[in-house]
Amino acid sequence: QKVGKEFEFILDELNKKGIVFALASGRNHQRIRNVFRNDLDVVYISDNGGHIEYRNKLISKTVMCKDTLVELVDFLKNRSCCRFAISDRDCNYVDNKAAHKMGKYFKFETSLVNDIKSCINLNEITKCSVLVNPCYHKKLLKELQEKFLNLNIVSSSSSSIDITDIQADKVNAVEILREKYNINEDNIMVFGNHIN
Would you state the pLDDT for residue 104? Predict the structure, then answer.
């Protein structure tokens, strides 16, 4: 969904003053890329910090370890309380028809594959999104956090869990940008609308 003209006006005014807005989201790049007009000067931080682009150039990408990802996929496949998708820059991949339907419902690009582990390039995956029955959310979150110590595992709602590499988060993304563009910490402001 596009932002309103009022917000685009504010971004135009910020851009005129040399201020760049960074949109940070748990969604994948293609989903957040269409939020603003193409001519606005916006940094896109997607997959909870796993992917950063500015002016159509890749700034940083933090992928999940392939071996850990395979172990995670096997772990989640054995849980009847959840469905999951793994994401690269452009798409979410699922190997379950129910999860594919959920992707259409939540309006994110999904590709239904026969076997996640063999049908896509696992070296490009930046995030795993888990949709879980709210009754099992806390239990599954705890199990994941105890089993996968080298992953960043956060609750993104009462029925969803986001999983990225341990180095991929929104705070690290801001730090990457700060260092790359030599931005003084006093010139950075962050705000958000959710717990992660």
Answer: 61
Place of tokens 């996929």: 73
pLDDT at 139: 97
DSSP letter assigned to residue 30: H
Query: Looking at this protein, which amino acid is placed at residue 146?
Result: E
- From the list 149, 146, 155, 151, the residue with the least C-alpha distance to 166 is 151
Q: Which residues is 152 bridged to in the sheet?
A: 164
Query: Who wins on pLDDT, 103 or 69?
Result: 69
Give the mean pLDDT of the chain: 86
DSSP character string of 89-148: SS-EEES-HHHHHHHHHTT--EEE-S-HHHHS-GGG--EEEEEE-GGGHHHHHHHHHHH-
Using CA atoms, how far apart are residues 138 and 132, in angstroms rounded to an integer?
10
Provide CB contacts within 8 A for 106, sequence distance 6+.
none
The pLDDT score that the predictor gives to residue 195 is 60
